[in-house]
Amino acid sequence: MSVKPELEQLHFPGESADYRAARTALLIEEMALRRQIESVAAHRRALPPGGELKQDYRFVGLDGPVNLSSLFSSGKDTLAIYSFMYGPERARPCPGCTHFLDAIDGQVRHIDQRINFVVVAKRPLPDILAFAGERGWTGLHLLSTDGNTYDSDYFGDSSALSPQMRRQQDFKDGREWDMPMLNVFRQEGKVIRHAWGSEMLYVPAEPGQDYRHNDLLDPMWNLFDMTPEGRGDFQPKLNYA
User: What sign does the dihedral 222-10-34-30 (CA atoms) show?
Assistant: First the structure.
């Protein structure tokens, strides 16, 4: 594809002809990427119905025990659940999950208008809430799995992975990890089905990259991708000097 002759382009102060030619070529790629992103999103929306919910899992929230089925608000038939890496094997939460949730916390008031969204962790609720207070999170709907099998069943941890998958992902024998999995569920009448999961977490990463399974949701990585420095070898931390 080429840029149509009638398509007027911007010209920034002091730019060279070489810059504009290269930027035009990049703009063509960006336009193609925009179409590809929407095409993939359309295919995602068109997936056949997934499997029925394995069980009506019980979580623990601020008001006590809460079943997954009760997380669907009236008029909103979609529920997204993010598995936060703050399991019992960790002294402190995952910095990658934390930077992601720092951003999402400010978006929850908007997200809540269209879908149901909760964050779960394999940790007692008081520990989760204490960390939320430390970060200043006020919007996220936080739940503890309280020992249920949700993360095992929907791959928010590594415990149910096949031997072949463990080898593919280089998981060490005898070591289990919580994983940053996003799962989406859809309620159809009285039936709840799994609709989509961020399975790119469990396919080999491209050389020199991380899994990038939830990158479309992550403003930090997307912002870095628009800069000359790119992502580099930056890794988020819980605290900076």
Answer: negative
Q: Residue 61 is which amino acid?
A: G
Give the mean model confidence (pLDDT) for residues 87-104. 95
Per-residue pLDDT at 172: 85
Q: How many CA atoms lie within 13 A of 225 on its CB side?
A: 10
Q: Distance from CA of residue 105 to its chain's centroid?
A: 13
- pLDDT per residue over 11-23, tens digit each? 999 999 999 999 9
Is 186 found in the same domain as 141? yes
Distance CA 220, CA 200 (A): 19
Averaged over 6-11, what is the pLDDT? 85
pTM of the model: 0.94
Q: Cα(171)–Cα(157) distance, rounded to whole angstroms? A: 11
Mode of pairing for the β-strands spanning 116-121 and 142-144: parallel
pLDDT per residue as tens digits for the range 58-80: 999 999 999 999 999 999 999 99
CATH code at position 140: 3.40.30.10
User: Nearest-5° angle of CA 221, CA 182, CA 210?
Assistant: 40
Query: What type of residue is 34?
Result: R
Count the domains in the chain. 2
Structure tokens at 161: 């992975």
Do both 24 and 116 map to the same domain?
no
Residues 180 and 155 in one domain: yes
Give the structural domain span for 31: 1-46
